[in-house]
Amino acid sequence: MFYKRSASSRWIYKKYSTAQIIIGGPHASVLPTETLNEFSDFDFAIYGEGEIPFYELLSGKDLSQINNLAWKNNGQIIKMSVFKV
Hints:
Helix content: 40-55%
Radius of gyration: 12 Å
Distance between the termini: 28 Å
Low-confidence stretches: none
Strand content: 15-25%
Mean pLDDT: 87
Number of strands: 4
Largest sheet: 4 strands, mixed
């Protein structure tokens, strides 16, 4: 199933070249850094509880202020701390 997501993201990039792809779910929650490294089509990984970070990301909040978020920055993976419920 996870590889189908990667195939879908490649299709989206072909059709909408400026799109940014956000991945979440169990794989991204357990291995957010590895997920972004392995699948170059994903721009962001939301791990753990994702509702709040997803909203904050779409609202334009500064990335460094969003818990449970990992993203690519000049070839490096930046990973923020985990939000405690």
